[in-house]
TrEMBL record:
Protein source organism: Candidatus Gottesmanbacteria bacterium RIFOXYB1_FULL_47_11
GO molecular function per UniProt: RNA binding
Domain R3H, residue spans: 84-150
Name of the protein in its database record: R3H domain-containing protein
SUPFAM superfamilies tied to this protein: R3H domain (SSF82708)
Pfam families: KH_KhpA-B, R3H
PROSITE patterns (alphabetical): R3H
Length: 151
């Protein structure tokens, strides 16, 4: 059995055990990571508050797949078009924070973001010459600062 089919089968089994029905599609991206796409009527249940349930589902699925394939692999899970919409919202949030930081002349703090969400903000503002970004703090208290660049 090919690895991609194994990933699909593991995902379908995991969903069945959670009593969630849906269809699963899997492909491999240019980095070799498995992209699992789930279409279900129960998107809210699978995504959870601010994507926390989806994040946990992805971690557990990654562990199940890595164990089955007997090698560490990266697995990304998307439910419906949640990740695309969330990324768009984060990019907009980054641009608004940059504008606010410039207008106020002081750093703007963005909190309650996951590591991947902070990464989207950093990447979005990397090309903006007016501001710089910095993550501070530890663990769940980690925040992202959007600061006007000093000349």
């Amino acid at each position: 059995m090919e690895a991609i089919d194994q990933v699909k089968e593991i995902t379908e089994d995991f969903l069945k055990r959670l009593d969630i029905s849906g269809s699963v599609a899997v492909d491999v991206d240019e980095t070799g990571a498995y992209r699992v796409h789930i279409e279900t009527e129960e998107t809210g249940l699978l995504i959870g508050y601010h994507g926390k349930t989806l994040e946990s589902f992805q971690i557990i699925l990654g562990m199940l797949v890595s164990k089955a394939l007997e090698q560490w692999v990266k697995v990304y899970v998307n439910v419906g078009d949640y990740r695309e919409k969330r990324e768009e919202a984060l990019m907009l949030m980054a641009q608004h924070a940059a504008e606010r930081a410039m207008a106020a002349g002081r750093p703007i703090e963005l909190s309650n973001l996951s590591a991947s969400e902070r990464r989207v903000i950093h990447l979005t503002l990397a090309g903006d010459e007016r501001v710089e970004t910095e993550s501070t703090g530890e663990g769940s208290r980690r925040t992202l600062l959007v600061k006007p660049k000093t000349i």
